[in-house]
Each structure stands twice: as C-alpha cells, then as structure tokens.
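Budget justification aside, the reviewers requested a transparent look at the raw inputs and outputs of the sequence design task funded under Objective 1. We therefore reproduce one unedited record. The lines immediately below are the structure tokens for a 169-residue chain.
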C-alpha cells in the first residue's frame, strides 16, 4: 500500500518533466511487444492520402497509401452536409485478406484503393461537393491509427484534368 502511494506521488513530476511522456505511452500501448522504440511512423495525412472527384453522376474517392501502410476495408464511410445532395451506397472493392496480430482476420488495401458512390441531387447538376470521408489504417510495423475523417472538395473532373484537390483534415 505504501509503495502505491509513493508511486502516485512520483508520477506527476515525471509527466511534467518530459512533455512527450504521455505521447510515448500512447504510442507504445498501440504497438505489439517487439522492439518498437526505434520505429518511426508517418503522420496519418502522409500515410493515407485521399482525393475525390465527380464524374458521370458518381462520387469517386481514391486513397494512395505510403509503402508499408494499409487501410481497413470495413472502416470506410462518406457523408455530406449539403442538404440538396444524397450519396448512395458506397462501392468498396474486395481487399487483401490478412490476419492482424490483435484485430484478427480482416480485408485491407495496400498501395491504393478507389471507392465510388452514386450521387442524387434535387437540382440534377452537381459541380462541387464537399464530403467527409472516414477511414482507418495501420502500418506493417505495428501502429494502428485512430479513425480519421478528411473533408474533401470533389469537383467535376474533365478527362484531361489531373487529380488535384483541396484536402482539409
């Protein structure tokens, strides 16, 4: 009992002595029990780069993943706050089956994935659509990121246009 009380009095000074203490604890709790202290990980916005565009009355969302990073198939969702537009069912292609050390069997996407959904509008013409895309991914080195949401501004893309969009996380 006395040992516990002493530990509790020592813990707050340790937290304030190093302002990254809690970040390291959070990171290490998310990792498997191998040597992860020397691992470095990309920020989520660099590990998983989404983009979106509109074409033929459909919304397309593409993700490009950094090498060694993957997205969970079951974690994708898309919404919009634009009242005059409805997004139909999201088409998600089949992924690669893996067995995750702690999460078990799942489908994931390495490299890239293209999602799509029909869009329905009261005005029948949608040239710009702001959408919120939710997703979650992991690194092969063991870190799984918290679920993320990105706001993407999708516009009508001409066949010759490159995929350049404003992404806000």
């Amino acid at each position: 009992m006395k040992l516990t009380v002493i530990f509790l009095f020592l813990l707050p000074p340790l937290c304030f002595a190093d302002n990254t203490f809690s970040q390291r604890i959070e990171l290490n709790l998310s990792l498997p029990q191998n040597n992860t202290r020397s691992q470095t990980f990309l920020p989520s916005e660099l590990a998983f780069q989404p983009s979106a565009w509109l074409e033929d009355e459909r919304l397309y969302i593409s993700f490009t993943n950094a090498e060694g990073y993957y997205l969970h198939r079951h974690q994708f969702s898309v919404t919009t706050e634009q009242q005059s537009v409805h997004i139909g069912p999201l088409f998600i292609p089949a992924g690669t089956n893996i067995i995750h050390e702690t999460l078990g069997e799942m489908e994931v996407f390495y490299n890239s994935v293209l999602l799509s959904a029909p869009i329905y509008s009261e005005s029948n013409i949608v040239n710009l659509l702001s959408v919120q895309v939710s997703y979650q991914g992991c690194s092969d080195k063991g870190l799984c990121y918290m679920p993320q949401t990105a706001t993407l501004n999708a516009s009508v893309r001409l066949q010759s246009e490159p995929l350049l969009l404003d992404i806000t996380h």
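Residues 1-36, 160-169 have pLDDT under 50 and may be disordered. The radius of gyration is 21 Å. Computational costs for records of this kind are itemized in the attached budget.
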